[in-house]
Amino acid sequence: MTYNKRRRRAIITVLFRFGRAVTKDEIIDALRAWDEKLVPSNPTSLGSILSRIPFVNVKSGKDGILKIASDGRKRRAPTYELDWAVIKSEEDIPYLIPKSSLYRNEMSNSFQCPECHRFRMVYEESDICLACLRKA
To answer: How far is CA 111 from the centre of its chain?
Structure first.
């Protein structure tokens, strides 16, 4: 399993444990405390990984957090938060992440959802994925 696959799963778990909208810096600090190998090389790389997770919402512009830079300028940093309508508990994470981020034993229980056409792990013998169930 490549590091980005492991990172994606770890980032989702970190966002869930925060329980609120957080900046990239907060995510990087939490990943560093968890496992140094999971920290992306730079914040741009983290933004790229976050953009590939379908149930992570980005709040930017006026919804972002106001930060004061070291030179005294004010800027808005985007914040990232999970879609709480879709993910209710930490046990839901394997059912919502892409097939590429699943562990080998979980991959055998995956299928292509007929509604969203994404490969997901089977949720309680349902015909559609957990994300589609919760959005309906």
So the answer is: 20
Query: Per-residue pLDDT for 16 more than 90?
Result: yes
| Number of C-beta neighbours around residue 70 at 10 A | 5
CA distance 15 to 26: 10
Q: What predicted TM-score, i.e. pTM, was given to this entire model? A: 0.82
Q: Which residues pair with 67 in a beta bridge?
A: 75
DSSP single-letter state for residue 66: E
Amino acid of residue 97: I
> Quick one: tokens of 135?
């959005």
Q: Cα–Cα distance between 22 and 88 in angstroms, integer?
A: 18
Tell me how many degrees the CA angle 13-14-20 measures, rounded to the nearest 5: 110
Short-list 22, 28, 32, 30, CA closest to 67 = 22
List beta partners, residue 82.
56
Q: Comparing C-alpha atoms, which of 24, 99, 92 is closest to residue 58?
A: 24
